[in-house]
Amino acid sequence: MSEIKLASRKSRILAYLIDHFVLSLFLVIPFTILMANEDIESDFLFALFPIWMIIFFIFYCLKDSFKGISLGKWVIGIGVRDENDRSDIPSIPRLFLRNLLLVIWPIEFIVLAINKNKQRLGDKVANTIVIKVREMGVWKKIVVVLLAIVISFVLFLSAIVLSMKNSEAYEAAITFIESNENIVGETGGIEGYGFLPSGSIQTSNGYGESVFTIEVKGKEKDIYVEVYLTKVPNQNWKVEEVHYE
């Protein structure tokens, strides 16, 4: 029988980073999409956010429930086991308790750094350890973490862009730009738009304000157009100001 080895502190931190970036998408992306929907009031989102945070935290604490591994641990090749029987996978309540203490993560990392058995506070409370399940080279770990970060960023950015472009406010801004003779003449004819518009949308009680900075690609030259719009109940978005350069 092969010797069971404790997971290194670096492996545990890398697994934590992967979990953190990937799971954070489930917290951020839904709200990003909802914020771009003018039919959902800002006051409702503010009230919903604490509830969603609680649901997310419960899900986060259960991340190791499948055979003592999370996505990050599976990628890195480590897993949670019982401290007294290193072949035994702890129960789900113990795994939940173990991750519950991540709410005080600065203390957790300090304890992990100084504990001789490479346990954090959550491990000590739940009587667990983290072991190597399979070997993985240092460079492979680094590459995996960087890929997780890049993929998470791309997905987050894509969610923002798609939500914004699918909003009624953005569509109203594009309609105005395409019907504006000065902008069409400045570009020599509109051929398309940049992939990454910037801006914001705010709505409350049927009233709304939004502002976008949109790259307009033209036959002769490209320009950036800033559009400010407002909305009143039971009416469409209305362009109030336009600036371009």
Automatic annotation (TrEMBL):
InterPro entries: Pra-immunoreactive (IPR051791), RDD (IPR010432). The keyword Membrane applies. The keyword Transmembrane applies. Keywords: Cell membrane, Membrane, Transmembrane, Transmembrane helix. It is a multi-pass membrane protein. Coiled coil: none annotated. Residues 7-127 form the RDD domain. It comes from the Bacteria. It is found in: Cell membrane. This is RDD family protein. It comes from Bacillus salitolerans.
